[in-house]
Design a protein that fits this description.
- The structure is a single chain.
- The chain is α+β, with helices and mostly antiparallel strands and 271 residues long.
- The protein has nine helices and eight strands.
- The protein has two domains: 17-85, Winged helix-like DNA-binding domain superfamily/Winged helix DNA-binding domain (Arc Repressor Mutant, subunit A); 94-263, GAF domain (Beta-Lactamase, 2-Layer Sandwich).
- The strands form two sheets. The chain has a six-stranded antiparallel β-sheet with strand order 5-4-3-8-7-6, with helices on both faces.
- Helix 6 packs across helix 8.
- The radius of gyration is 20 Å and the shape is globular.
Length: 271
């Protein structure tokens, strides 16, 4: 295998973009994405093995990222650096749909008395971009900037059903689904069946599949072109969000998601 710093051969497709790729800059981006999925950090050898790049190249990239504050080394393991917090906050602040959604998240929390959240597709994850906390002291919702796995999170299931429906097997092969709880679905047939159910009923359900004792429900948000651009939902402890409340919660979440869809220009969407 050639070193990552070797010139990248020209690729016929896409026509022009690949010709201008800087290989080690791409590798640095890939490393940051991997570290984002491992909050406990990874050793250079682990990164090199997972991304199939030389260890020496990995170390040089990590040295550069650490000097720029994009990564840091703690006890021999590399983690995301503090500069990314600033960059992430700046990126979230510039997200149009987030600004449109904030009042609606507040409304959904008032309607359900539970924590509401908004997510957008980000590679093969669901990126939480806004959260409105419930008044309850016990909260289990992820914070803005968290990347949730698609197969076991409510917003991720929305994206599997409406954005990645034809790529489920490919996505699961590239990143094998983690069994986070005994209820997590990890086989392609089960995940595809769940995606079909989500499309049919218009909402997804994380039934203690991401965290034990936590139930989440989400609905798709459509853009002006009819494509799903986000998912909006609620997270609650199962002692409050019982199975009997699913129809009630689903109606409220879908209604607010439809309202956000209209704000995004999708006037034809029906809750």
């Amino acid at each position: 295998m050639p070193a990552a710093s070797s010139p990248r051969p020209a690729s016929p497709a896409p026509a022009g973009d690949e010709r201008y790729v800087i290989p080690n800059l791409r590798n640095a981006c890939r490393i940051l994405k991997v570290l984002g999925r491992h909050p406990d950090g990874l050793k250079a050898a682990d990164l090199a093995r997972d991304l199939k790049i030389p260890v020496t190249t990995t170390l040089r990239i990590m040295t550069t990222l650490c000097l720029e504050g994009l990564a840091r080394k703690v006890d021999g393991r590399f983690e995301l650096g503090p500069v990314l917090i600033q960059l992430g906050n700046a990126a979230l602040a510039g997200t149009e749909i987030r600004e449109q959604a904030l009042p609606l998240l507040q409304k959904l929390t008032q309607l359900t008395d539970e924590t509401a959240h908004l997510a957008i597709p980000c590679d093969d994850r669901a990126l939480i971009v806004a959260v409105q906390d419930s008044p309850h002291p016990l909260r289990a919702a992820s914070r803005p900037g968290f990347l949730a796995e698609l197969h076991c999170s409510s917003t991720g299931k929305v994206f599997l059903a409406f954005v990645h429906r034809e790529r489920i097997a490919e996505l699961m092969a590239a990143s094998p689904p983690t069994r986070r709880t005994p209820l997590t679905q990890t086989t392609v047939p089960a995940i595809r069946k769940e995606a079909d159910l989500t499309r049919k009923r218009g909402f997804s359900l994380d039934n203690e599949e991401f965290n034990p004792g936590v139930r989440c429900l989400a609905a798709p948000v459509f853009g002006s072109d009819g494509q799903v651009v986000a998912a909006i939902g609620i997270t609650a402890a199962t002692v409050r969000f019982t199975e009997a409340r699913v129809p009630e919660i689903a109606a409220k979440v879908r209604s607010v998601a439809a309202e956000l869809s209209r704000l995004m220009g999708h006037a034809e969407h029906r809750a």
